Amino acid sequence: MTWIAPEVDRDRAPVVADERSMLDAWLDFHRQTLLSKCTGLTAEQLRTASVEPSNMTLLGLVRHSAENERWWFRQQFAGLDLPYLYYTQEQRDRDFEDVAAADPEADLAIFHEEIELVRQTVAGRSLDETFVGTKGRDISLRWVYLHMIEEYARHNGHADLIRERIDGTTGE
Predict the structure, then answer these.
(1) What pLDDT was estimated at residue 171?
(2) Helix (H) and strand (E) counts for the chain?
């Protein structure tokens, strides 16, 4: 039996809420949007590049997003000493470059696990908490949320185009 990426329910972000609830909801909406672009596709389709010479695939976007979740929330904000998921010194774009033999089911599980671990990491933490970033500047948790929402929004546009190229499916 052929594995197929599962369906995803997308929750709409509220239009009236406190700041933290709104940021959490918009970030979840964009996470779910990326996953919805994968819904119903086979492993091979998820590994399909958009158009040459680009190596961007839906699976690569999922892997890249999991890496970014870990990097910004857990490694940078929380200061946890964790290994990278895909990145190596020799292959910095491995999240995109090494998908031909990747297991999409396992990579989607990693994505979901990373999101859950991020939720645990930021629970009860103030948006005003800061850490010193790699360039020596103070960065707030609020900035990380906004950056991740921006990151997903940009990549979800890529995902729209990749999905349309794969099977003609369009949508928001």
Answers:
(1) 76
(2) 6, 2
